[in-house]
């Protein structure tokens, strides 16, 4: 999932400087033996910062590395993700590996996409399907009893670590409060026509033991696990999302599952937006203009796609297209592209839906949000970041499915 980094102070504190030095050293390491040393040092410092909810120090180090050492930046963000989605807990003198696991469900609809408490019967079914088809023999599980949206998920590394620690403790039978959900989008936020909902769990195994079924000798493959999960769990998850088309993705570790879900929802969100605007705003695809702008701090972290009437500059709807890993990296001048870049892929999808007027804005735009409702701002054809507003006579939101 795309993350917007806060600006850091010009001078790094002691722990931030140490993070920068360790990440740079790990990136420049020449052997696996040396890797393990630097990883252990980084792990100890990251654990201290996460326990103290000291995200500012970590963000400052990431910001510094993003400007001065790209390799170190990638190392540090990978290690921070690992430290916040997995840890070791002890009970009765035995050490246990703990992983924060999510099962994404991509949904699309003409109605609203539900979230909220999971009924007890559905919880029991999902636990049984996770144990039966995804998790290794003997894994212990604590399920968050709520189907959550991305807006309700942790927003910092330390928030993620807190969810991990609480659910892992519950899975081991230790006293721990339920993870705290973030507030959802405000009432003024534009409707989400394609989005992801998440089943979240803490999974615990004895240290060093297999965690997933495909790690076991006779456990089959990831593809086998996904096929069984779709066949057995999708009916239950579809029942939690009435009026929606759904696609279940393989339950896996927190960050990789979020990124996989974001990638899958990107094209569905564009297609759903064009179809919905025709009914809600009375604008056929050939009456729409799409504006594509890259947003980020120093590089493009996401594309924001605005929809306006062809004869006006008012943004009436918008979609976010996050980019990851190699998608962010410009090709060397002498390199041959291996496929369409993100803007070409977005433009091709829009043309498939009948939107012919497509404007691509140059440069990098600020990733601004509305301070009142948290809605992303989207660029109008002039390159100005604005709040999307449907026409007054539009059917302003998808109806609830009954």
- Count the beta strands: 14
The value of Rg in angstroms is 22 Å
The averaged pLDDT comes out at: 89
What low-confidence regions span 5 or more consecutive residues with pLDDT below 50? Answer: 1-8, 329-339, 398-402
InterPro entries: DUF2863 (IPR021292)
Protein name: DUF2863 family protein
SSE blueprint:
Elements: H1 14-28, H2 32-51, H3 55-68, H4 70-85, E1 86-91, E2 94-109, E3 116-117, H5 120-133, E4 140-143, E5 146-149, H6 157-171, E6 194-206, H7 222-239, E7 244-248, E8 252-253, H8 254-280, E9 288-295, E10 302-309, E11 317-322, H9 342-352, E12 357-365, E13 378-379, E14 385-386
Parallel strand pairs: 9-12
Antiparallel strand pairs: 1-2, 2-6, 2-7, 2-8, 3-5, 4-6, 5-6, 9-10, 10-11, 13-14
Helix pairs in contact: 1-2, 1-3, 1-4, 2-4, 3-4, 4-6, 5-7
How would you sum up this structure, described in words?
InterPro entries: DUF2863 (IPR021292). This is DUF2863 family protein. By secondary structure, the chain is α+β, with helices and mostly antiparallel strands. It folds into three domains: 71 residues, no CATH class; 171 residues, no CATH class; 106 residues, no CATH class. Strands 1, 2, 3, 4, 5, 6, 7 and 8 form an eight-stranded antiparallel β-sheet that branches. Strand 13 and strand 14 form a beta hairpin. Helix 1 packs across helix 3, helix 2 crosses helix 4 and helix 4 runs parallel beside helix 6. The N terminus and C terminus are likely disordered.
């Amino acid at each position: 999932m795309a993350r917007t980094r806060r600006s850091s102070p010009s001078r790094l504190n002691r722990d931030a400087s140490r993070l920068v030095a360790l990440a740079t050293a790990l990136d420049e390491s020449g052997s696996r033996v040396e890797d393990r040393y630097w990883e252990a040092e980084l792990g100890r410092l990251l654990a201290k910062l996460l326990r103290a909810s000291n995200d500012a120090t970590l963000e400052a180090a990431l910001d510094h590395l993003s400007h001065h050492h790209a390799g170190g930046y990638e190392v540090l963000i990978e290690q921070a993700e690992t430290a916040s989605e997995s840890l070791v807990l002890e009970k009765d003198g035995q050490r246990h590996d703990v992983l924060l696991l999510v099962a994404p469900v991509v949904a699309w609809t003409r109605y609203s996409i539900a979230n909220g408490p999971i009924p007890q019967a559905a919880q029991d079914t999902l636990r049984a399907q996770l144990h039966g088809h995804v998790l290794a023999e003997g894994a212990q599980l604590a399920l968050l009893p709520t189907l959550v949206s991305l807006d309700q998920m942790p927003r910092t590394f330390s928030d993620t670590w807190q969810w991990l620690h609480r659910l892992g403790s519950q899975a081991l039978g230790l006293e721990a409060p339920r993870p705290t959900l973030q507030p959802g989008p405000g009432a003024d936020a534009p409707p989400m026509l394609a989005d992801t909902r998440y089943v979240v769990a803490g999974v615990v195994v004895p240290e060093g033991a297999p965690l997933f079924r495909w790690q076991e000798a006779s456990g089959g493959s990831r593809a086998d696990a996904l096929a069984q999960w779709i066949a057995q769990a999708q009916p239950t998850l579809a029942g939690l999302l009435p009026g929606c088309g759904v696609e279940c993705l393989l339950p896996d570790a927190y960050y990789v599952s979020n990124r996989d879900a974001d990638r899958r929802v990107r094209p569905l969100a564009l297609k759903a937006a064009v179809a919905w605007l025709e009914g809600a705003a009375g604008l056929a695809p050939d009456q729409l203009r799409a504006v594509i702008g890259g947003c980020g701090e120093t590089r493009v972290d996401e594309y924001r796609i605005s929809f306006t009437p062809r004869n006006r500059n008012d943004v009436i709807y918008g979609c976010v297209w996050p980019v990851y890993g190699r998608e962010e990296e410009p090709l060397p001048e002498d390199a041959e592209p291996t496929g369409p870049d993100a803007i070409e892929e977005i433009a091709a999808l829009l043309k498939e839906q009948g939107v012919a007027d497509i404007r691509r804005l140059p440069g990098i735009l600020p990733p601004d949000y509305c301070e009142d409702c948290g809605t992303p701002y989207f660029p109008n054809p002039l390159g100005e970041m604005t709040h999307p507003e449907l026409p007054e006579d539009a059917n302003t939101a998808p109806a609830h499915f009954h």
